[in-house]
Amino acid sequence: MGPKKTDVFGPIPSVFDFAKSDEERQVLELHFKQILLGRPIAAPPGLSVPTLEILRTAFMHTMHDPDFLEDAKKVNIDIDPASGTEVETLLHQFANYPEAVIRKARSAIGR
Q: Is residue 3 part of a domain?
């Protein structure tokens, strides 16, 4: 149960496979896909698009750098970054969910 489907443990269905409607899928996305936002890196508002793209590219290069990954492995840190575009898309998606979806998601997690 997480934001991404994996076959690490075999061909196990995703929690999203059990959603019976778009609304149920959205509730599940609010709960599970927010994990992708766990350690966001933000820049100041008004940043130019070229500068934003340079920063996003540099970040992703770092996340795939062999020396960086080796150091992360030594201290037992899994590196599985979401791209800036993925994070931006999720934030817009979450911000535009209907209020009913937000209420149901809150109710499901007890908040």
A: no
17 contacts 5 by C-beta, under 8 angstroms: no
CA dist 29 and 101 (Å) reads: 10
Domain count within the chain: 1
Through-space distance between the first and last CA atoms of the chain, rounded to whole angstroms = 20
5 lies in some domain:
no
Output the pLDDT for position 1: 60
pLDDT by residue (tens digit) across 38-72? 777 888 999 999 999 999 999 999 999 999 999 99
Are 90 and 37 a contacting pair, CB within 8 Å?
Answer: yes
Q: Considering the domain boundaries, does residue 40 fall inside one? A: yes
Q: How many residues does the chain have?
A: 111
